[in-house]
Amino acid sequence: MDKKEALVILIKNSIILGEATQEKLLNLVDKMTDEEIMEWGKLLAEEQDFVEENKEEILAKLEAMEE
Amino acid sequence: MQEAQETNFESRDQAENIVRFAVVKTLIEKPKLFIDKILSNEEIKDSMKEMTNINIRFCALSVLALAEFIPFLEKGSDATKSMKILKSIGEKVKNAKDKGVFKKTFDLYPNVPNWAMKTGLVLDVGADVLPPPFSTVAGILPELWQIMMDKYNLVASGVKTIKELAEIAKEVYFCKSEFTQKQVSDAKLAFK
Question: For residue B55, what are the contacts with CB-CB under 8 A and spacing of at least 6?
Answer without folding.
Answer: B30, B31, B34, B35
